[in-house]
Every structure is written in C-alpha cells, then in structure tokens.
Amino acid sequence: MKKMLPWLITILLTLIVLAAFLLVNQMNKPAPGTEVNAAVNSVAEPEKLSVDEIVKVTSTIDDIKTNLSEPDYVVVIDFAFQMDNEASKEAFDKIKDYKIKPIIIKTLADTKPEELTGALGKDNLSSKLLNLINKSLPEGKLIQIDITDFIMTTI
Predict the structure, then answer these.
(1) Over the chain (155 residues), what is each successive 10-residue block's mean pLDDT?
(2) Residue 33 has what pLDDT?
(3) E strands of the chain, at which residues?
C-alpha cells in the first residue's frame, strides 16, 4: 500500500488540475446572446452631433403607461428616439402614435419586472425596441433610444 500512495496522490492532483483548467475555460466563454448584444451596440453607436443637430433628429414619446407581464406591476415610461436624419424624424413623427407606440406597449407587456431593473435592463429594453422599430420604419433608420423617465410600481 505504501508503494501505491505516491501514484494515487499524483493521479488525484492531476485530476484536480484538469478540473480547474476546464472550469476556468468554461467561465471565460461569453454568455449566449452577448455576441448579438455586442453587434447591436456596435451598430447602434451614434455619430457625434452638435446640440442643434441632435434636437433636429430627435423625437419623443411621453407618458406610456402599461402593465408588465406580471399584471401587478405598472410602468410609466418616456422615450427619446434619435433618427439618422431630419427626413426620417418627420416620417417617424407621423407614425409614432399608431405604429411605434403599440410596439413599445407589446414589448413591455412581454417584459418581466426583473428584466427592467438596473441600467443593463433598460439597455436591453432599448436594444430590443431599436431592432423592432427599425423593422417597421418606412424610411430612414433609428440609431438610438434613450429612456428619459421611468417609474415602475406595483398596483
């Protein structure tokens, strides 16, 4: 038995080192879906504009009040939408009440309260809305969505 003890210790240490190596490699892998979020964020980076240019291409939707996926939670939220040019903003303003607002309400209706907590939750909501709204725009491109006011409460 005394002759086998060094072999057993060596095998055991080798297994521990191997397990630690596999765990470190597994933890360093990006989470599923982060590649998509990174791609959305890199595409959605707005170029630097002056204050007057930002005002010319930005539209707002205020006071959206709706329930979340859990009916006990209500959210009141305001958005600022930055378009790629003035013509896009004019087209956006024409359809925002009957085309854009329903997209926002449906998205919020499928959202859990935990998904809206913190800056990351609000960024994820903005990214999701950016993709959905860009698909429905007749012309131009939405390049940034900012949440300008946010209240979430229980009923």
Answers:
(1) 80 85 74 54 61 91 94 94 92 92 95 92 94 90 94 92
(2) 56
(3) 58-67, 73-83, 142-154
Contacts of residue 142, defined as CB under 8 A and 6 or more positions apart, other chains included, come to 81, 82, 83, 84, 88, 92, 130, 133, 134
Question: Rounded to an integer, what distance in angstroms lies between the CA atom of residue 139 and that of residue 97?
Answer: 16
Distances in Å between the Cα of 101 and the Cα atoms of 14, 81, 93, 109, 154 are 60, 12, 11, 12, 22
Kindly report the pTM of this predicted structure.
Answer: 0.68
CA distance 126 to 121: 9
Distance CA 123, CA 139 (A): 24
- DSSP code of 31? P
- Tokens found for residue 102: 């329903």
**Which token pair is 52?**
């007057």
